[in-house]
Amino acid sequence: MTTTSPLPAADGCGCPEYAGLSRRGVLGLGAGLVGATTATTATTMVGDAVLQTARAASGTARNTLVVLSLRGAADGLSMVVPHGDPAYYKARPRIGVQPERLWGSDGFFGWHPALKPLQGLWAQGRLAAVQAVGLPAPNRSHFSAMEEVEDAAPGSTTRAGWLNRLVGLEDRTTPLRAVNLDAGALPSSLVGPTPAMSTEDVDSVVVAGGGDPRQRESSLRTLWGGRDDALGRAAQMALGAVADFAPARQTTARPQNGARYPSGDLGGAMATAARIIRGDVGTEVLTVDHGSWDMHAQLGTVDSGLMQRSCAELAQAIAAFFTDLGPRAGTVTLVTLTEFGRRIVENPNRGLDHGFGSMMMLAGAGVRGGRFYGRFPDLGTQAYSDLTVTTDYRSVLAEVVSTRFGASTASVFPGFSGPTLGAMTNSVGSG
To answer: Has residue 51 got a pLDDT over 50?
Structure first.
C-alpha cells in the first residue's frame, strides 16, 4: 500500500523529479537490493508480506512509534501559520491563512483550520509542533532529501536507516518489531541488517496458495525445516513470523471506540496500524506514507484546494487512529516527517516552490503537548525567500527515541549531538 492521497498528482506542478514518482519507485532503487535473497524467498511463501528473517517473541505490550511521512515536501507555514509575523501575509497575499480562521493560537502561531480534527489531542496536551525544522544543510531534491532524512547519518557509508538502527539496539530479532504499511519496498529508514516487514494489510500476512492453509504450512515446514542454509533459514523465519502475526489477524478490522477514518489510502493505512497495535504482536515501529504535498501550483484557499484537502485527510486519519486505539493510545507516539519545506513567498501559480525549513508534529504518548516548539526566524530577513532551519530534525527524533525507548541516541544518530527541546516527557514505558 503506497499511501498516496486521492488528490491530483504532482504532474504539471513544475517539479519533474517528483511528478509520477511514487515512494515505492524512489525507495525501491536502493532498498529493494538489501536482503534480496531473503525477501524473495519470503515473498514467494507469504504472498504480499515481505518478511526478512526471524521469529517473533511479542511478550507484553511495548511502546510503539508511528512515523508518518508527508511525501513531496509539506509546507509547514501553511499547517502551523506564523500569523504573528506580518512578513508572512506580505509574502502570501493570495494563499495566506488569516488569523481569525486559525485555532490553537498562542498569539504567534496557529493551526490551519482543516487540521481542526486534532483539536482534541491539542486540548489534552497530546499534540505539539516544532517549527523551522529540517535537514542541517539545504537540499531541494526530493530523491536525495528523502534518502538523507531516512538514513539520518550524514557522511556515513553504512547502508542502514535510523529506524533499522533503533530496532537493532535490542537483541530480539523479529521482523514484526518494524512494519512498513506498503506492499512494496521498505523505506530507507528501515533498510539494514535488522529484519523488518512490509505488508499492505493485516490479512495478507499468510502462507500463500490454495487449499487448506494448515496443510500448506505443514508442507513448507517439512520442505524447509531441516535446511541450515540461507534459503532454509529465511523460509523458517518467514513461517515463524506468519504464525506470530496471528493475533493481529484475529483482531477485528472494525475501528473501535467510534473511530471514523477518512476514505482513501491514508485512512486505510492508519486503521491497519491501529489493528496491528491492538493485536499486540510486539510491533514497536510502524511506517506510513501520505502524499503528494508537492504543491507548486493551486495550493488553494483556506476553504478549498490541495492544502485544505490534504490537511483535512491527515487530521481526520490521525484523530481516528488515536480514538481507535483506546487505552493502547497511552503506549503510542506518532511523529510526522517531510523531506524539506517550501519557500516563504508564493509563486505566480498560487503555489510554493521547494524550500528548506518545515514543521514536524508530535502526537500521543509522552508528548508535552498544547505548545509550539523551536526557534522561529524573522521571515522578513530570510535569504532567497527560504525558511532557515533552526532545529535539526534529528533533535526531535532523538528526544522521541530516548524518552520512549530508552535508546542510545548516539547509536541511532551517529555523530549527532543537538539541544533538547523539552517536547517529550522522560517516561519510558508509560503514556
So the answer is: no
